[in-house]
C-alpha cells in the first residue's frame, strides 16, 4: 500500500472520530446535521484521494451518490427545523 494513502487514511480516521463524537454529543439537531455533512465530506475526500493516488475513476459513481445524499439530507433537515421554528 502506498505510504501517502496510509497517511491520508490515518488523518481522515482521526477527523471522522472527532466528527462522530460531535454527532453523538450534539447538543442540537443542527450540530448533528453539520457533523453528518462533515463526515460525508470526509468520506468523499478519502475516496477522491484514493482515486487520484491509484489513477482510476471506479469509485466516481459512489462519490456522486454520497454528494446527492448529503445535499438532500441537509435540505430535509433545514426544512424540518424551519417548520418546527414556525410552529413555536
TrEMBL record:
Q: Which residues cross the membrane?
A: 6-25, 59-82
Q: How does it sit in the membrane?
A: Multi-pass membrane protein
Q: Report the locations given in the UniProt record.
A: Cell membrane
Q: One Pfam family for this entry, by name?
A: MrpF_PhaF
Q: Which domain of life is it from?
A: Bacteria
Matching entries from InterPro entries are given as: MrpF/PhaF-like
Q: What is its main location?
A: membrane
Task: List keywords of the entry alphabetically.
Answer: Cell membrane, Membrane, Transmembrane, Transmembrane helix, Transport
Q: Which family does it belong to?
A: Belongs to the CPA3 antiporters (TC 2.A.63) subunit F family.
Q: From the Swiss-Prot or TrEMBL record, give the protein name.
A: Monovalent cation/H+ antiporter complex subunit F
Origin species, per record, is Microbacterium arthrosphaerae
